[in-house]
């Protein structure tokens, strides 16, 4: 395609944006609302994933020792655990220490148990790679003086299932909005096509190639998508900047961290822009295919 | 040049507009297509530039069976065929020059070549001096001249005209016919559907008469044939 022709297509596509004033406004608004929600939701989602990862990385396991194990057996167990590959740290805590921890947290009622301490001595073991936790837990479980191993897999599963549900709800919502935006874009393009019916008819009669006829409409769709993404990009950037400024100092000492402003915000913005373009192209393709019969 | 073999066309509403067309048109011929309204004249003509696709049969144009032509090749077929309509189909926002140039712009011709060719055909149709005017500043006959200029600007081998004088007064019609004669004398094949008895009976050419989707008569230097 020649540069001159491309220039002509650009000019035509801008002309019809201006000519279709209100439909342009409606499509751009729909794209704006959609992308704003997509942007906010994605930012939220990615941060929740990050939090889940942070939590997962902080997994420790509690290895409870059999009641009848003596000092010698405990030392043997400790050595056995230490010798496993992938163990980062191991810490011993007697049942008396455990109980005083409970009394500190839950109050003096817990002191009743000092007569007959129901707790067990335990090792707190941490894996170098948190994904290895499950493997280590099952290995340690086979050792002679291990009573049981706990590593809070239930809690993590629960967190993940909450994430899963909210992700699905969000996906349905976003799909609905994307569909609406595409429908509106496709309608705007349809009006353009109707307005230029004679022109298109003549183009086809004198032998314009199908792409020559199509390109201006597809460009128009792309502009609708890009214009629609401007406001969401500005809004999401501003919101995330403020949230980041607020949250960052407060989370400083926590093991959960919010995603860094840069490059995260550029990635989100690129995603918003891309979605805008995709909606635009898709919307115009639907109209062009249906109404142009090229 | 153009050959139809066993061509049938059935529209979705059940009407058989072509019931076995068998016809051959040589290069350089001038052919009138006559017949009552709704007889199948338009279908006959439209199938030649693939505006309509036959249900069955072959239509050979310049050695290619256009009934089987892929949709993305149709534009290249149309570049060798000029089409003129009763209602001119000009773009009212464009000048006379731009309307004619449009046919070359969409096939990505060089601006220099476009200018030269457009002025040439405007000269041929006698409208060089009105190149900068808008279509609605022209008379009906002049508008039809512009559309004829557009149809021949990329030097097609065939010009197909669907009742080109249908909207014009008798005197203007004669002027348009003279123009078609002139184009035909330069070697371009002309196929014209018409209801104009006087023209057909005066400027004698081959006549193909169509009734109910069938070619009922095909004679060299024929007459219009229907009583008024």
TrEMBL record, chain A:
<keyword id="KW-1003">Cell membrane</keyword>
<feature type="domain" description="ABC3 transporter permease C-terminal">
    <location>
        <begin position="172"/>
        <end position="292"/>
    </location>
</feature>
<dbReference type="InterPro" id="IPR004513">
    <property type="entry name" value="FtsX"/>
</dbReference>
<keyword id="KW-0472">Membrane</keyword>
<keyword id="KW-0132">Cell division</keyword>
<protein>
    <recommendedName>
        <fullName>Cell division protein FtsX</fullName>
    </recommendedName>
</protein>
<dbReference type="Pfam" id="PF02687">
    <property type="entry name" value="FtsX"/>
</dbReference>
<keyword id="KW-1133">Transmembrane helix</keyword>
<feature type="domain" description="FtsX extracellular">
    <location>
        <begin position="59"/>
        <end position="149"/>
    </location>
</feature>
<comment type="function">
    <text>Part of the ABC transporter FtsEX involved in asymmetric cellular division facilitating the initiation of sporulation.</text>
</comment>
<comment type="similarity">
    <text>Belongs to the ABC-4 integral membrane protein family. FtsX subfamily.</text>
</comment>
<dbReference type="Pfam" id="PF18075">
    <property type="entry name" value="FtsX_ECD"/>
</dbReference>
<dbReference type="InterPro" id="IPR040690">
    <property type="entry name" value="FtsX_ECD"/>
</dbReference>
<dbReference type="InterPro" id="IPR058204">
    <property type="entry name" value="FtsX_firmicutes-type"/>
</dbReference>
<feature type="transmembrane region" description="Helical">
    <location>
        <begin position="264"/>
        <end position="285"/>
    </location>
</feature>
<feature type="transmembrane region" description="Helical">
    <location>
        <begin position="222"/>
        <end position="244"/>
    </location>
</feature>
<keyword id="KW-0131">Cell cycle</keyword>
<keyword id="KW-0812">Transmembrane</keyword>
<feature type="transmembrane region" description="Helical">
    <location>
        <begin position="21"/>
        <end position="46"/>
    </location>
</feature>
<feature type="transmembrane region" description="Helical">
    <location>
        <begin position="169"/>
        <end position="189"/>
    </location>
</feature>
<dbReference type="InterPro" id="IPR003838">
    <property type="entry name" value="ABC3_permease_C"/>
</dbReference>
UniProtKB/TrEMBL annotation, chain B:
<dbReference type="InterPro" id="IPR003439">
    <property type="entry name" value="ABC_transporter-like_ATP-bd"/>
</dbReference>
<keyword id="KW-0472">Membrane</keyword>
<protein>
    <recommendedName>
        <fullName>Cell division ATP-binding protein FtsE</fullName>
    </recommendedName>
</protein>
<dbReference type="InterPro" id="IPR027417">
    <property type="entry name" value="P-loop_NTPase"/>
</dbReference>
<keyword id="KW-1003">Cell membrane</keyword>
<dbReference type="GO" id="GO:0051301">
    <property type="term" value="P:cell division"/>
</dbReference>
<keyword id="KW-0131">Cell cycle</keyword>
<keyword id="KW-0132">Cell division</keyword>
<comment type="function">
    <text>Part of the ABC transporter FtsEX involved in cellular division.</text>
</comment>
<keyword id="KW-0067">ATP-binding</keyword>
<dbReference type="InterPro" id="IPR017871">
    <property type="entry name" value="ABC_transporter-like_CS"/>
</dbReference>
<dbReference type="InterPro" id="IPR003593">
    <property type="entry name" value="AAA+_ATPase"/>
</dbReference>
<comment type="subunit">
    <text>Homodimer. Forms a membrane-associated complex with FtsX.</text>
</comment>
<dbReference type="InterPro" id="IPR015854">
    <property type="entry name" value="ABC_transpr_LolD-like"/>
</dbReference>
<comment type="similarity">
    <text>Belongs to the ABC transporter superfamily.</text>
</comment>
<dbReference type="Pfam" id="PF00005">
    <property type="entry name" value="ABC_tran"/>
</dbReference>
<feature type="domain" description="ABC transporter">
    <location>
        <begin position="2"/>
        <end position="228"/>
    </location>
</feature>
<keyword id="KW-0547">Nucleotide-binding</keyword>
<dbReference type="GO" id="GO:0005524">
    <property type="term" value="F:ATP binding"/>
</dbReference>
<dbReference type="InterPro" id="IPR005286">
    <property type="entry name" value="Cell_div_FtsE"/>
</dbReference>
